[in-house]
Amino acid sequence: MTGLTNTTKPVSDIEANAARISITAGVFFALLLGSLHLLEPEFDPTWRFISEYSLGKFGWMMSLAFVSIAISLASIGVAIFSRVRNIVGYIGLVILVLAVVGLLLAAFFTTDPIFTKQENMTPSGQMHVLGASLDYSPLAFLLLSFSLARYMDWASVKKWLFFTAILSIALTIGFIFTIPMDGVFGPGVYTGLVGRFLMLSYLGWLVIAALQVLKLKNNKTG
Asked: Which of 34, 38, 136, 179 is 20 to 30 A from 155, comparing alpha carbons?
């Protein structure tokens, strides 16, 4: 335990409630995304992006899913804000805020079909891509893990924070490398599948961090 700070600040009611909201919103995101696979089977999950569910009859559900994951990210930021007290943590929080903004843009601006050429993209599709390009949540998770790992009362979960953060980063890299060089998507391209696992991997870090906040709250009040 050498070099670790003894403890973080006591968890406030606001932080505990934010942790609960983060878990709830994250699980709701997963349920919505899972439901869309059944409701809109015309979108092949191996190579079609999750954003394209917004083009179907139940598109509002995809918009709501993006809002839900944005709420989950924002809430965990509130829940851990008072225990992030170094430059690495602050950078992580800034990246997290950018991700929240990006996901909200993705929610409110509908994507173009995957076949759309760049020069033919609609303003809404361009804004959606801009929003997606702001989501570097995995990097935020990693930086925030380094910040939280300084404290003894986070020692029990730090390896899981790092594991889930690194998993998300690995899936991000995998997502990038599965994008076809010629930009032509179709069967045999697995960008969509990797992208789905990437988004679901967010829940690992979010839930672990949120549950630890709640555990610290219970320990202080128990």
From this structure: 136
